[in-house]
Amino acid sequence: MAGVPQSRRSHREVRTRRAHWAAHMVRAGACPQCHELRLPHRVCPHCGYYNGMPILEIKEKKS
Ligand SMILES: [Zn+2]
């Protein structure tokens, strides 16, 4: 059976692991096309571009 810890983690191991949670937070960056905030490795929701190519057709803003 999997998923059962073989021994109890020490307080230091737990605290050391939890001290690094901020390092793997997703950081949004500016789109090189429209300079809006956009998640990395995702098609930009503002201009529909990814890797310099138009991927999505962005319809005009509904007013
Ligand atoms: Zn964009």
In brief, what are we looking at here?
The chain is an alpha+beta fold. The chain has a domain at 29-58. It has one helix at 11-18, and strands at 29-30, 37-38, 49-50, 53-54.
Polypeptide structure, described:
The chain has 63 residues and is an alpha+beta fold. The protein has a domain at 29-58. Helices cover 13% and strands 13% of the residues. A two-stranded antiparallel ribbon has the order 1-2. It has a two-stranded antiparallel ribbon with strand order 3-4. The model has no long low-confidence stretch (mean pLDDT 88).
Q: Helix content range of the residues, please?
A: 10-25%
Radius of gyration: 21 Å
Residue runs with pLDDT of under 50 for 5 or more positions: none
Order of helices and strands: HEEEE
Structural class: alpha+beta
Q: How many helices does DSSP assign?
A: 1
Let me know the average pLDDT: 88
Largest sheet: 2 strands, antiparallel
Distance between the termini: 57 Å
How much strand? 5-15%
Rough outline: elongated
E-strand count: 4
Side by side, the strands of the main sheet go: 1-2
Q: Name every ligand kind in the structure.
A: zinc ion
